Amino acid sequence: MNIAITGAGGGIGSILWQRLRSERHNLFHVSTKEGVGRYSYTDLNRLINNGMLDVIIHLAWSSVPADEAGDIAITGMDDVELMKGIVQCLKDASREGVSKPLLVFSSSCAVYGEGDGETVFSEGDETSPISRYGRRKKVVEKVIEDAVDDFGLRSLVLRLTNPYGFMRGDDRPQGVISHLVDALVKEKTFTIWGDGSASKDFVHIDDVTRAICMLVECQGIGTYNLGSGYSVSIDELIAIVENFLERRLATKFTESPPWDVTAGKYSIEKVTKTFGWSPQISLEDGIAQYCKES
Hints:
The chain is α/β, with parallel strands linked by helices. It has a single domain, classed as Rossmann fold (3-Layer(aba) Sandwich). Helix content is 38%, strand content 18%. The protein is globular and about 60 Å long.
Protein backbone atom coordinates (compact mmCIF):
# COMPACT_ATOMS: atom_id res chain seq x y z
CA MET A 1 0.00 0.00 0.00
CA ASN A 2 0.97 3.63 -0.47
CA ILE A 3 1.07 5.15 3.02
CA ALA A 4 1.81 8.74 4.04
CA ILE A 5 2.95 9.24 7.63
CA THR A 6 3.13 12.56 9.44
CA GLY A 7 5.38 12.61 12.50
CA ALA A 8 7.46 9.73 11.14
CA GLY A 9 10.54 11.18 12.82
CA GLY A 10 9.05 10.95 16.29
CA GLY A 11 9.33 8.18 18.87
CA ILE A 12 6.26 6.26 17.73
CA GLY A 13 6.54 7.27 14.08
CA SER A 14 10.12 6.12 13.58
CA ILE A 15 9.38 2.64 14.91
CA LEU A 16 6.12 2.40 12.96
CA TRP A 17 8.02 3.44 9.83
CA GLN A 18 10.48 0.59 10.27
CA ARG A 19 7.71 -1.95 10.80
CA LEU A 20 5.70 -0.80 7.77
CA ARG A 21 8.81 -0.71 5.60
CA SER A 22 9.65 -4.28 6.62
CA GLU A 23 6.19 -5.23 5.36
CA ARG A 24 7.05 -3.79 1.92
CA HIS A 25 4.70 -0.82 1.95
CA ASN A 26 5.52 2.28 -0.11
CA LEU A 27 5.99 5.08 2.43
CA PHE A 28 5.93 8.89 2.27
CA HIS A 29 7.44 10.86 5.18
CA VAL A 30 5.38 14.07 5.50
CA SER A 31 6.92 16.80 7.64
CA THR A 32 7.06 20.55 8.19
CA LYS A 33 10.86 20.16 8.21
CA GLU A 34 12.82 19.96 4.99
CA GLY A 35 15.11 17.03 4.36
CA VAL A 36 16.08 14.31 1.96
CA GLY A 37 13.16 11.99 1.34
CA ARG A 38 10.66 14.21 3.11
CA TYR A 39 7.43 15.53 1.67
CA SER A 40 5.79 18.82 2.64
CA TYR A 41 2.10 19.17 3.46
CA THR A 42 1.72 20.76 0.04
CA ASP A 43 3.16 17.54 -1.37
CA LEU A 44 0.66 15.60 0.73
CA ASN A 45 -2.19 17.55 -0.86
CA ARG A 46 -0.82 16.70 -4.29
CA LEU A 47 -0.62 13.02 -3.42
CA ILE A 48 -4.22 13.12 -2.21
CA ASN A 49 -5.49 14.96 -5.28
CA ASN A 50 -3.73 12.53 -7.61
CA GLY A 51 -5.25 9.54 -5.85
CA MET A 52 -1.83 8.16 -4.97
CA LEU A 53 -2.49 7.21 -1.33
CA ASP A 54 -4.22 4.27 0.29
CA VAL A 55 -3.62 5.41 3.86
CA ILE A 56 -2.65 8.59 5.73
CA ILE A 57 -1.37 8.04 9.28
CA HIS A 58 -1.39 11.32 11.19
CA LEU A 59 0.97 11.07 14.18
CA ALA A 60 2.36 14.60 14.13
CA TRP A 61 1.47 16.73 17.16
CA SER A 62 3.23 19.80 18.45
CA SER A 63 2.67 19.31 22.18
CA VAL A 64 2.68 16.79 25.00
CA PRO A 65 0.46 16.86 28.11
CA ALA A 66 3.18 18.41 30.28
CA ASP A 67 3.42 21.40 27.92
CA GLU A 68 0.22 22.61 29.60
CA ALA A 69 1.97 25.39 31.45
CA GLY A 70 3.83 26.57 28.38
CA ASP A 71 3.14 29.20 25.76
CA ILE A 72 0.09 28.29 23.66
CA ALA A 73 2.02 29.46 20.61
CA ILE A 74 4.26 26.42 20.90
CA THR A 75 1.85 23.94 22.45
CA GLY A 76 -0.56 22.86 19.78
CA MET A 77 -1.98 26.06 18.31
CA ASP A 78 -1.64 24.77 14.74
CA ASP A 79 -2.58 21.12 15.26
CA VAL A 80 -6.31 21.61 14.74
CA GLU A 81 -5.86 23.77 11.66
CA LEU A 82 -3.42 21.25 10.23
CA MET A 83 -6.01 18.48 10.44
CA LYS A 84 -8.70 20.76 9.05
CA GLY A 85 -6.46 21.35 6.04
CA ILE A 86 -5.93 17.64 5.46
CA VAL A 87 -9.65 16.92 5.76
CA GLN A 88 -10.56 19.78 3.41
CA CYS A 89 -8.14 18.43 0.81
CA LEU A 90 -9.68 14.96 1.17
CA LYS A 91 -13.14 16.48 0.74
CA ASP A 92 -12.15 18.43 -2.37
CA ALA A 93 -10.54 15.35 -3.90
CA SER A 94 -13.62 13.29 -3.11
CA ARG A 95 -15.79 15.78 -5.00
CA GLU A 96 -13.58 15.20 -8.02
CA GLY A 97 -14.14 11.49 -7.83
CA VAL A 98 -10.74 10.64 -6.32
CA SER A 99 -10.78 7.54 -4.14
CA LYS A 100 -10.66 8.30 -0.42
CA PRO A 101 -7.65 6.98 1.51
CA LEU A 102 -8.08 5.74 5.06
CA LEU A 103 -7.22 8.50 7.55
CA VAL A 104 -5.65 7.22 10.76
CA PHE A 105 -5.43 9.67 13.66
CA SER A 106 -3.32 9.12 16.76
CA SER A 107 -5.53 10.49 19.51
CA SER A 108 -5.25 9.97 23.25
CA CYS A 109 -7.19 8.60 26.18
CA ALA A 110 -6.61 12.06 27.65
CA VAL A 111 -9.89 12.97 25.91
CA TYR A 112 -11.81 11.12 28.65
CA GLY A 113 -10.51 13.32 31.43
CA GLU A 114 -10.23 12.32 35.08
CA GLY A 115 -11.58 9.03 36.34
CA ASP A 116 -13.07 8.13 39.69
CA GLY A 117 -10.86 5.13 40.40
CA GLU A 118 -13.60 2.67 39.48
CA THR A 119 -14.83 3.64 36.01
CA VAL A 120 -13.16 1.87 33.09
CA PHE A 121 -13.54 4.19 30.11
CA SER A 122 -14.77 2.71 26.85
CA GLU A 123 -15.15 4.38 23.47
CA GLY A 124 -18.82 5.27 23.91
CA ASP A 125 -18.31 7.14 27.16
CA GLU A 126 -18.54 10.91 27.47
CA THR A 127 -15.29 12.78 26.93
CA SER A 128 -14.38 15.57 29.35
CA PRO A 129 -10.66 16.33 28.96
CA ILE A 130 -9.00 18.30 31.74
CA SER A 131 -5.90 19.34 29.79
CA ARG A 132 -5.32 21.55 26.77
CA TYR A 133 -3.67 18.55 25.12
CA GLY A 134 -6.76 16.41 25.61
CA ARG A 135 -9.13 19.18 24.54
CA ARG A 136 -7.27 19.67 21.26
CA LYS A 137 -7.26 15.94 20.58
CA LYS A 138 -11.02 15.98 21.17
CA VAL A 139 -11.48 18.89 18.75
CA VAL A 140 -9.59 17.03 16.02
CA GLU A 141 -11.68 13.93 16.67
CA LYS A 142 -14.78 16.11 16.08
CA VAL A 143 -13.30 17.44 12.82
CA ILE A 144 -12.90 13.85 11.67
CA GLU A 145 -16.34 12.81 12.89
CA ASP A 146 -17.96 15.67 10.96
CA ALA A 147 -16.05 14.68 7.81
CA VAL A 148 -17.33 11.10 8.12
CA ASP A 149 -20.89 12.45 8.17
CA ASP A 150 -20.22 15.10 5.52
CA PHE A 151 -18.56 13.18 2.71
CA GLY A 152 -18.01 9.63 3.92
CA LEU A 153 -14.41 9.96 5.07
CA ARG A 154 -12.99 6.60 6.07
CA SER A 155 -11.31 7.15 9.41
CA LEU A 156 -9.59 5.21 12.18
CA VAL A 157 -9.15 7.06 15.49
CA LEU A 158 -6.81 5.42 17.98
CA ARG A 159 -6.94 6.64 21.57
CA LEU A 160 -3.55 5.71 22.98
CA THR A 161 -2.87 5.43 26.70
CA ASN A 162 0.81 5.89 27.65
CA PRO A 163 3.17 4.33 25.08
CA TYR A 164 6.66 3.47 26.31
CA GLY A 165 9.68 1.47 25.22
CA PHE A 166 11.35 3.94 22.88
CA MET A 167 14.19 6.35 23.51
CA ARG A 168 13.24 9.94 24.28
CA GLY A 169 15.36 12.92 25.21
CA ASP A 170 14.63 14.26 28.70
CA ASP A 171 14.11 17.76 27.33
CA ARG A 172 10.50 16.86 26.56
CA PRO A 173 8.61 16.13 29.79
CA GLN A 174 6.68 13.11 28.62
CA GLY A 175 7.03 9.45 29.42
CA VAL A 176 7.28 8.67 33.12
CA ILE A 177 9.00 5.33 32.50
CA SER A 178 11.84 6.84 30.48
CA HIS A 179 12.36 9.54 33.12
CA LEU A 180 12.18 6.99 35.92
CA VAL A 181 14.79 4.70 34.36
CA ASP A 182 17.00 7.68 33.57
CA ALA A 183 16.84 8.85 37.18
CA LEU A 184 17.81 5.44 38.51
CA VAL A 185 20.62 4.86 36.04
CA LYS A 186 22.10 8.33 36.55
CA GLU A 187 21.36 8.39 40.28
CA LYS A 188 19.18 11.47 40.02
CA THR A 189 16.26 12.41 42.24
CA PHE A 190 12.91 11.52 40.72
CA THR A 191 10.01 13.91 41.28
CA ILE A 192 6.68 12.24 42.03
CA TRP A 193 3.53 14.20 41.29
CA GLY A 194 1.12 13.75 44.19
CA ASP A 195 1.60 10.91 46.66
CA GLY A 196 2.48 8.12 44.22
CA SER A 197 -1.01 6.61 44.09
CA ALA A 198 -1.89 8.00 40.64
CA SER A 199 -2.78 5.07 38.34
CA LYS A 200 -1.91 4.95 34.64
CA ASP A 201 -2.12 2.50 31.75
CA PHE A 202 1.17 1.81 29.95
CA VAL A 203 1.41 0.07 26.59
CA HIS A 204 4.64 -1.02 24.90
CA ILE A 205 5.55 0.65 21.61
CA ASP A 206 5.86 -2.70 19.84
CA ASP A 207 2.26 -3.53 20.75
CA VAL A 208 1.15 -0.08 19.54
CA THR A 209 2.86 -0.33 16.16
CA ARG A 210 1.70 -3.91 15.70
CA ALA A 211 -1.87 -2.77 16.30
CA ILE A 212 -1.60 0.10 13.83
CA CYS A 213 -0.18 -2.19 11.15
CA MET A 214 -2.90 -4.77 11.77
CA LEU A 215 -5.73 -2.25 11.59
CA VAL A 216 -4.28 -0.51 8.53
CA GLU A 217 -3.86 -3.83 6.74
CA CYS A 218 -7.52 -4.71 7.20
CA GLN A 219 -8.64 -1.10 6.56
CA GLY A 220 -10.33 -0.83 9.93
CA ILE A 221 -12.56 2.13 10.68
CA GLY A 222 -14.00 3.58 13.89
CA THR A 223 -12.65 4.73 17.24
CA TYR A 224 -10.65 2.42 19.52
CA ASN A 225 -8.78 2.60 22.81
CA LEU A 226 -5.24 1.28 22.49
CA GLY A 227 -3.57 0.35 25.75
CA SER A 228 -2.65 -2.55 28.00
CA GLY A 229 -6.10 -2.78 29.56
CA TYR A 230 -4.89 -2.37 33.13
CA SER A 231 -3.37 0.39 35.22
CA VAL A 232 -0.65 0.56 37.85
CA SER A 233 0.18 3.22 40.39
CA ILE A 234 3.36 5.25 40.19
CA ASP A 235 4.51 3.56 43.41
CA GLU A 236 4.02 0.14 41.81
CA LEU A 237 5.84 1.29 38.70
CA ILE A 238 8.81 2.49 40.75
CA ALA A 239 8.96 -0.87 42.52
CA ILE A 240 9.08 -2.74 39.20
CA VAL A 241 11.98 -0.63 37.91
CA GLU A 242 13.84 -0.75 41.24
CA ASN A 243 13.55 -4.53 41.36
CA PHE A 244 14.90 -4.96 37.85
CA LEU A 245 17.82 -2.55 38.23
CA GLU A 246 18.43 -3.60 41.84
CA ARG A 247 18.71 0.00 42.94
CA ARG A 248 16.79 2.30 45.22
CA LEU A 249 15.36 5.49 43.78
CA ALA A 250 15.80 8.86 45.44
CA THR A 251 12.45 10.65 45.32
CA LYS A 252 10.83 13.91 46.19
CA PHE A 253 7.19 14.89 46.06
CA THR A 254 5.39 17.82 44.52
CA GLU A 255 1.77 18.75 44.07
CA SER A 256 0.09 17.01 41.15
CA PRO A 257 -0.68 19.51 38.37
CA PRO A 258 -4.40 20.07 37.71
CA TRP A 259 -4.19 18.68 34.16
CA ASP A 260 -2.66 15.32 35.13
CA VAL A 261 -5.07 12.37 35.02
CA THR A 262 -4.55 10.44 38.26
CA ALA A 263 -7.17 7.70 37.87
CA GLY A 264 -7.02 6.41 34.31
CA LYS A 265 -8.55 3.02 33.47
CA TYR A 266 -9.41 2.12 29.88
CA SER A 267 -11.13 -0.81 28.21
CA ILE A 268 -9.54 -2.42 25.14
CA GLU A 269 -12.40 -4.87 24.65
CA LYS A 270 -13.63 -3.22 21.44
CA VAL A 271 -10.34 -3.45 19.53
CA THR A 272 -9.75 -6.98 20.84
CA LYS A 273 -13.17 -8.26 19.78
CA THR A 274 -13.18 -6.43 16.43
CA PHE A 275 -9.65 -7.18 15.22
CA GLY A 276 -8.26 -9.84 17.53
CA TRP A 277 -5.50 -7.54 18.75
CA SER A 278 -4.29 -7.68 22.32
CA PRO A 279 -1.02 -6.53 23.92
CA GLN A 280 1.69 -9.20 24.03
CA ILE A 281 4.36 -7.49 26.14
CA SER A 282 3.83 -7.31 29.87
CA LEU A 283 4.83 -4.19 31.76
CA GLU A 284 7.58 -6.10 33.57
CA ASP A 285 9.02 -7.51 30.34
CA GLY A 286 8.71 -4.18 28.55
CA ILE A 287 10.53 -2.32 31.30
CA ALA A 288 13.26 -4.99 31.37
CA GLN A 289 13.71 -4.61 27.62
CA TYR A 290 13.81 -0.82 27.84
CA CYS A 291 16.33 -0.87 30.70
CA LYS A 292 18.65 -3.15 28.70
CA GLU A 293 18.49 -0.81 25.71
CA SER A 294 18.97 2.41 27.69
